[in-house]
Amino acid sequence: MRTLPVLKQACGDVHSAVRTAAVAGLGNLGDSSLTSFFKDLFSKDGSDLVKTEAVRALGKTGDPLVVPFLEKALAVPSHRDMVGKAATQALTQLRKG
């Protein structure tokens, strides 16, 4: 897939909106091989928007092994609890799938 390297590179852009869109694009692939990539972004990026999208992307992977990570994300402080809400949605999505 030719878009994968482009989207991964965009996750390092200086603008958080670009990084967020790139993570959303990657998340929509539903590729469980990107789990570590999403976790790394979550841990290293300072933007609540990027962290939120990384959590959503983890839920879309369908990988039940991310549940403990998402449970920890529930307690991560963020603007209007964006990260916690996304973690709740991701957990719900994983448990239904």
What does this structure look like?
With 97 residues, the chain is an all-alpha fold. It has a single domain (3-96), classed as Alpha Horseshoe (Leucine-rich Repeat Variant). It contains 6 helices and no strands. It has helices spanning 3-10, 16-27, 35-44, 48-60, 67-73, 82-96. The protein is globular and about 30 Å long. The chain starts with a helix and ends with a helix. The model has no long low-confidence stretch (mean pLDDT 96).
Question: Quick recap of the structure?
Answer:
The chain is mainly α. It has a single domain (3-96), classed as Leucine-rich Repeat Variant (Alpha Horseshoe). It has helices spanning 3-10, 16-27, 35-44, 48-60, 67-73, 82-96.
Task: Name its key features.
single chain; 97 residues; mainly alpha; Leucine-rich Repeat Variant; 6 helices; globular
Topology:
Layout: H1 3-10, H2 16-27, H3 35-44, H4 48-60, H5 67-73, H6 82-96
Helix pairs in contact: 1-2, 2-4, 3-4, 4-6, 5-6
Strand content: under 5%
Count the DSSP helices: 6
Number of distinct beta strands: 0
CATH architecture: Alpha Horseshoe
